[in-house]
Amino acid sequence: MELDDMKLAWQTLDRRLEQHNAINLQVFKDGRFDKTRSALRPLFLGQFLQLLFGVAVAATSAMFWIAHRDVAHLLITGLIMHAYGVMTIAFAARSLLLIGQIDYAAPVLTIQKQMGELRNWYVYSGLAVGLPWWFLWALCLTMFFESAFGADLFVNAPSVIYANVVVGVLGLLATYWFGQWLRSPKRPQLAKRAEDSLTGSSLRRAQSILDEVSRFEQM
Question: How far apart are CA 155 and CA 144, in angstroms?
């Protein structure tokens, strides 16, 4: 065989090998991306349920403050809960949008960036939606007793409201202190567990799958 023929044969073999590797990589990535989508389904469902919860809170509180707009403290109670419901809807809607915007046809690095944006937003929105409940439970009780029994807690049981303010302030301070305590370099494992709990299992699993694809590409 001539030298030129051998070079041509090797080039042909190299191209076929590259094509074979590219096909195998794409098959691997497609399979892992399917698993990534599956991993995010519980998160999607959770955010959809949060959106429905926000709609229920916003609608119920709107009816409440409209019906009691002649009583200042009940009007304010309803407006606060209404605003919270709208905020909950907005946070959940953006989470759903970020999940839907993940482009699985993009490079893995781009998908990882999109996943990172989703993770950061999910953690931030989770804190924003969860922490106000140090105070909101008393407002919910106020709306319930007023709507169900015509009993105004601000008038009939003001100690409940005052106790809620005290407990809420103490709870927020304790939450802040605990967060700072966890972030100490002396407790890296506890900090990692706390971060994982805020991130959620769905996002952790999806990120782990993407990391696996990234490592496979670099092999």
Answer: 14
Q: Which helix (H) or strand (E) holds 199?
A: helix 188-199
What is the rounded end-to-end Cα distance, in angstroms, of the chain? Answer: 34
DSSP string covering 15-75: HHHHHHHHHHHHHHHHHHHHHHHHHHHHHHHHHHHHHHHHHHHHHHHHHHHHHTTTSHHHH
Residue 18: give the domain boundaries: 3-217
**What is the separation of C-alpha 43 from the centre of its chain, rounded to a whole number of angstroms?**
7
Among the ranges given (21-30, 55-64, 188-197), the one the predictor scored with the smallest mean pLDDT: 21-30
Global confidence as pTM = 0.82
* 8 Å CB contact between 50 and 96: no
